[in-house]
Design a protein that fits this description.
alpha/beta, TIM Barrel, 2 domains, eight-stranded parallel beta barrel, three-stranded antiparallel sheet
Length: 460
């Protein structure tokens, strides 16, 4: 094992050094040079001071890891790797926010992130929609918009990962800059506007991942007929959600979502209709009672008319905004119950600027606010929706989660599952095992033997 780790570290360091950042505004990474006809050896590119610091810290971590692994067991080394990311993650704050995001996705897609080898505690496992989740902690849509890194992200230990939002036709989104950090408040303002590579590209990636998963299951079954395949979804060792969006210039929103269903649902463990982003003009109007009812009926019909196997079609959820009135929440709950919607995600980002964000000069930027300041607003709304739906519909709590205690509060308020994004952006990979460990402590402290027992506990 030590030899494999050392070889892997050396290979990773060599590949990292001989790559450079292109002039592409998205910060894509490309090979420095060389090829079959190259006449000279590739040169190590010149890095900026920030780049040299980042490179040195990363290579140092890899070398230290190679030495450390020879003296410890796999589980302990896995824990060390996650802890070691605390050294590298702050360096991302030195980079432009969108470039740092692109770099993080690239790292996950190439396997340059830790892989969780330790099994989740049984107390965290639960079954929702007939799918087995090893833990209730998921990554929200918006991080991996184009399904580039699902395997790496699931490998970090998330119970589920949601990709998207995916639009039918590729679109650039809103002009840059469009992502703004508020580090003191643990928040981010973004106005990306559904930047997406489109359905065709995403379908191709998800199809390849789905095929890989099927091959792995077939190989495992043939080599060990009596060995149970690890629980997972259509694209790997965890559950995969696909979040669908509409194009900015589209005049028929329902047609856009239907197109998404027809092209992507076969690769999804669940689907999400995103009608709540504040960065696409007119999108939130689809949350009205009549508009939402008509939209959901059309999307459900498109899904149900497709051919499905024994497991049936993927569950359909709707993601809603945190800025709705009580009357609007009642309308959404009524539609969800009447149409037997499979779930709701509560919530998207907010256009409000609650304290202490309101005092920050960055607060004047338009866009949706996410992170810690969103937690009270989204959690109160989650609690209301649980009451309105009488606990009959699974809810995913999203907004401001950055600790196990936060996740636990969402679950007690009525969340069956919990998502984070901004907390992960600031905390990095080390935050995931930390949240799960803290969540176990919360459950045991209050005498719960499973996640299921804690769901909606505040209402009893």
């Amino acid at each position: 094992m030590a030899a494999r780790a050392a070889t892997s570290a050396a290979k990773w360091a060599r590949e990292f050094l001989f790559r450079k950042v292109s002039s592409n505004p998205l910060g894509a990474i490309r090979n420095c040079s060389s090829g079959p006809g190259a006449s000279s050896a590739p040169k190590v590119p010149h890095f900026s001071k920030k780049g040299r610091i980042f490179t040195g810290a990363t290579i140092g971590m890899a070398i230290a890891g190679g030495a450390y692994v020879s003296t410890t067991d796999e589980a302990t080394f896995c824990g060390w790797l996650f802890s070691a990311t605390k050294v590298v993650n702050p360096l991302f704050a030195l980079l432009d926010a969108e470039f740092a995001h692109k770099l993080a996705v690239t790292a996950a897609s190439r396997g340059w992130v830790p892989r969780e080898k330790r099994p989740d505690p049984q107390i965290l496992g639960l079954e929702v929609w007939g799918r087995k989740f090893s833990n209730p902690i998921g990554l929200a849509a918006g991080f991996d918009k184009n399904a580039e890194a699902t395997e790496g992200l699931l490998g970090l230990g998330f119970g589920f990962v949601e990709v998207g939002s995916v639009t039918p036709v590729p679109q650039e989104g809103n002009p840059k800059p469009r992502i703004f950090r508020l580090p003191q408040e643990g928040a981010i303002i973004n106005r990306c506007g559904f930047n997406s590579e489109g359905i065709v590209v995403v379908a191709k990636r998800l199809g390849a991942q789905h095929g890989k998963r099927m091959l792995a299951e077939t190989s495992a079954t043939s080599s060990s007929p009596n060995e149970e395949v690890k629980p997972g979804g259509k694209s790997g060792p965890g559950i995969l959600g696909v979040n669908l969006g509409k194009n900015k210039t589209s005049e028929d929103a329902a047609a856009d979502y239907v197109q998404g269903v027809h092209n992507l649902s076969q690769y999804a463990d669940y689907l999400v209709i995103n009608v709540s982003s504040p960065n696409t003009a007119g999108l939130r109007m689809l949350q009205g009672r009549k508009q939402l009812k008509d939209l959901v009926k059309k999307v459900q019909a498109a899904r149900d008319e497709m051919q499905w196997g024994d497991e049936g079609p993927p569950p359909l959820l709707v993601k809603i905004a945190p800025d709705l009135s009580r009357g609007e929440l009642e309308d959404i709950a009524a539609v969800a119950l009447a149409l037997r919607l499979d779930g709701l995600i509560i919530s998207n980002t907010t256009v409000s600027r609650p304290d202490p964000v309101s005092n920050n000069p960055v607060a004047k930027e338009t866009g949706g606010l996410s992170g810690k300041p969103l937690f009270p607003l989204s959690t109160n709304m989650l609690r209301e929706m649980y009451t309105l739906t009488r606990g009959k519909i699974p809810l995913i709590g999203c907004g401001g989660v950055s600790s196990g205690e936060d996740a636990y509060k969402k679950i007690r308020a009525g969340a069956t599952l919990v998502q984070l994004y901004t907390g992960f952006a600031y905390g990095g990979p080390a935050l995931i095992p930390q949240i799960k460990e803290e969540l176990v402590s919360c459950l045991e402290r209050d005498g719960f033997k499973s996640i299921q027992e804690a769901i909606g506990a505040d209402h009893r």
